[in-house]
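User: quick one, sequence for these tokens?
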């Protein structure tokens, strides 16, 4: 799987952990993780790009998926796999 996964996270976020586990269960081997708790400038970047303040914020390729609930709903609707496959 070559689709780039970008995830804005913090160290103590249970939803970030759940999102990573779900993606790994779907075959994702690499996640570019941006720890916004360690870099306030990246937090500002995340908020500007997504217009959201909560983590995780997940991008699959150029598509902003949203947070864990959004990712889980996408998976439940059968739309996560095609997105991961670049379709």
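Assistant:
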């Amino acid at each position: 799987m070559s689709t780039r996964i970008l995830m804005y996270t913090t160290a103590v976020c249970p939803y970030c952990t759940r999102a990573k586990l779900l993606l790994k269960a779907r075959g994702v081997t690499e996640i570019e993780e941006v720890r916004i708790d360690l870099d306030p400038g990246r937090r500002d970047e995340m908020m500007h790009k997504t217009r959201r303040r909560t983590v995780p914020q997940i991008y699959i390729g150029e598509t902003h998926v949203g947070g864990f609930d959004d990712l889980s709903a996408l998976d439940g609707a059968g739309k996560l796999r095609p997105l991961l496959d670049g379709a």
